[in-house]
Amino acid sequence: MLSHGKTKMRPWCFAILAVVVPMTAQAEDLFIKASRVYTLDGPPLAPGVVHVRDGKIVAVAGELAIPPGSRFRDLGSGVLLPGFIDAASSAGLDGGRTESTVEVSPRIRACDAVDPSHSSLRRLCQQGVTTVHILPGTDNVISGLSCILKTSGDRKNRVLREDHGLAITTSSDPTEGNSSRNRPDSPYNRQPTNRMGVVWILRSEFGLATRTSTPDRAVLREVLSGARPVFCTSRLDTDLLAALRLREEFPMRLVLVGGQEAYRVRQQIAAAKVPVLLAPLSTSAGIGPESTETILNLPGVLHEAGIPFCLTGGDLLDQARFAVRFGLPKDAALEAITVQPARVLQLEQRVGRIQAGRDADLVALSGDPWDGTSRVLWTMIDGVIRAEEP
Amino acid sequence: MRCHTFVLPLLLATAGLASADEVLAIKGGKILPVSGPVIEQGVIVLRNGKIEAVGKDVPIPSEAKVLDATGKVVVPGLIEVHSSRGMDQTNETNPIVPFLSVVDAIDPSQDYFEECRRQGITTAAIVPGNNTIFGGQAAIVRTSGQFLNEMLIKRDIGIKISLRPTGDRNRMGQVAAIRRELDAAREAMTERGRTSQAQPQPAPDAKGGTGSPEARNAEPADPPGGGGESAAANDDEDTQQRRPRPGGGDQPGQETNPDAALVRAALARLLKGEQLAFIYCELPMDVPQAIRLVKDYKLRGVLVLGPQCHRAVKQVAASGLPVILEPTLVLWETDPRSGEEKQIVLPKLYREAGVPVTFTVTPTQSAGGGRGGGSQPPMLGTNYLWFQAATAVKYGVPYDEALRAITLRPAEVLGIADSRGSLEPGKAADVVILSGDPLKLDTWVETTIVDGRIVYERANDRKIKALLKPEAE
């Protein structure tokens, strides 16, 4: 587990003396003390102590009796947060994210292509992201199944869910490059060629799934029975409304992805009680993908409208900080990278909070999370520190 | 718009600056003068576009319009030391155009300048882009003004030289082209110099050499940059065919190239040390090349460094040349053997090597259109100059040094530190009132003052209001 082998003194983090070695002694007790522990389960404990054993959180409290023989870390002025959860990511997927020779590929699985040692996953881990939901791309109308894994750890134990949700889209991405003005045998003769075509394909596929059964449609039936959530990438207001309409026609557990113009249709989204996984925020609002008109305070506006949302796409802490700058309350910002994604991904019992019984996924920061100069000191996944500030 | 840019130089000669004879006093704020210690609840008096007084117990003139900055923070206007925005196009198609001037391309109505005022950037050096060999003359401008003449602080302050290959050249060809032109210019200079005394002088260090005095009215004798375009294709071909001759200025076909004389005249000013050479290095290998150019031709070099150039940090440190960093300040590199991801923090790295740096920002508008989530947005916050400084602080650069890197240090690099970059009596009245600490995430620019005139007020910023609180549709 953690060793005291290497002791480099650094003025800025005197408490961090350990280096990462493969986990051996599982049953060791570890107590971590921090000036603040954001449990995401009530107000933060200041100070707080977290007791970790066997990769799980055993207890968390303002003070804990530390039995002799157990290991103890004091973060000093540092703070502890639950590991961040990136609910819409393309990390770990190399060489294209969609099988673009077909328009409908519900049985394509992201987990078949994810490289668990990919640099993008390691970077996420260094940024404090511990759980990641990887979605296939948006070049298909129905592009395939997503998977959920931890950003680091043993290959075997990292995967939380191999096939989680079905990725679809109402955006214009699948129409890119398609045209009907070719010879019939041209590879560019691919449906759809416009937005209406995208929705039409969705509607006919889900319609057919109710009547006929093929292996592909079995996946769609799981969606229609509510067993499998749907992650629909929609950016423009019209596309968001199209997704909501589809949900009315076919009962499904819909989650919207992207949502650049969600502020324009916030009443409708709020009424439908559909969560939104926001595309990475930008500090330069203006024109986004698909010529969407983006605003700076999208998270704050959605929060005010009562729409559950997550911040996604890496740099989660920085995104949360800028969301706060632009108007989102701090508590909501922290929830948008921890509790909310855990809820959307149906992993609430495992991750998202610092609570007894949950996975010991923790992030140590050098100071107040809202101070832009606080850094990630280390990231712990299942009780093991997997990334550490150099 | 096009004819607009043509008309501007004409206006330049006729229209004068509307004088800012209003007296402003800012009281009650915490003043960070950058050049001196913090003044709690200080007073700044601005008169005739200049700072008249700064201090704790400065009397407020009765005629002054008083801005109450109680609970706020007052800093000098920020300076972007290098920007290729504000023009309709960053580079000319012809790669060898040292005689052109950005002055003829700056469009005061561009979003860039508006965004600058919103961010508290009061001064910017507009420098041609990196897709060039000799990219043309840079200019220092105020970020406010309806027409260029109101904006211009100092024109023709330097020339962009890029070591990144242009067109179908490789790096050998690029460097050869640079040297050939400089050699030709030097040769022409010494020929002329036999009658007059136009020897290239050893260049003063850009830090110490404050350059020629700030002169917005003094128009340097500079060839007009009009006729360059027609000959563009011609010259390019010409350049391709000529073989590089080290030290050789004899160029076949130079009589047929109408630009050749212009190029030589423009480069002569560079060689005389009258101007800065903004040398863009894309890769670490370009850095020694740039340093050699500076030495061989006694240039007043300023290094514009791409993110990867940190590998040449020792050479950069040894050269003592001023450094401008591209907007990416934090990058990840994969160790080819272990596969370990290593985070490289440029401000920290350069600081540890003893190299003071200045920062630039990414464009404020993300490139629109584009397919879905394909194009990654620029890293959060890198479009804010203050955030670049905050990033430096985050990774261990002392606060004062970071603040200096976006105020006084760029003024020094640009040779305008005698008039800008800090809050001192006699300097231009470029002042920013902030809601809080300049490097904190929740701080906003409340008021931006350029030359004693209020050019931005957050309370009246309708655009930012719409971006924060849109109307429901």
CATH class designation of the largest domain in chain A: Alpha Beta
**Total strands of chain B:** 18
- Any guess at the CATH architecture of the largest domain in chain A? Alpha-Beta Barrel
- Computed over alpha carbons, the radius of gyration of chain A is 22 Å
Q: Could you tell me how far the N terminus lies from the C terminus of chain A, measured between alpha carbons in angstroms?
A: 18 Å
Topology:
The complex is a heterodimer of chains A (390) and B (473).
Chain A: E1 2-3, E2 19-20, E3 30-34, E4 36-37, E5 48-53, E6 56-61, E7 71-74, E8 79-82, E9 84-89, H1 119-126, E10 129-134, E11 142-145, E12 147-150, H2 155-158, E13 159-161, E14 166-169, H3 195-211, H4 215-224, E15 230-234, H5 237-249, E16 254-258, H6 266-272, E17 276-278, H7 298-304, E18 309-311, H8 316-325, H9 330-335, H10 339-344, E19 362-365, E20 376-381, E21 384-388
Parallel strand pairs in A: 3-7, 4-8, 9-10, 14-15, 15-16, 16-17, 17-18
Antiparallel strand pairs in A: 1-2, 3-5, 5-6, 8-19, 10-12, 11-14, 12-13, 19-20, 20-21
Chain B: H1 2-14, E1 24-31, E2 39-47, E3 50-55, E4 65-68, E5 73-76, E6 78-83, H2 111-119, E7 121-126, E8 134-142, H3 148-151, E9 152-162, H4 171-193, H5 232-241, H6 260-271, E10 276-281, H7 286-297, E11 300-305, H8 313-319, E12 323-325, E13 330-334, E14 341-345, H9 346-352, E15 357-358, H10 385-394, H11 399-404, H12 408-414, E16 431-434, E17 445-450, E18 453-457, H13 462-468
Parallel strand pairs in B: 1-4, 1-5, 6-7, 9-10, 10-11, 11-12, 12-15
Antiparallel strand pairs in B: 1-2, 2-3, 5-16, 7-8, 8-9, 13-14, 16-17, 17-18
Helix pairs in contact in B: 4-6
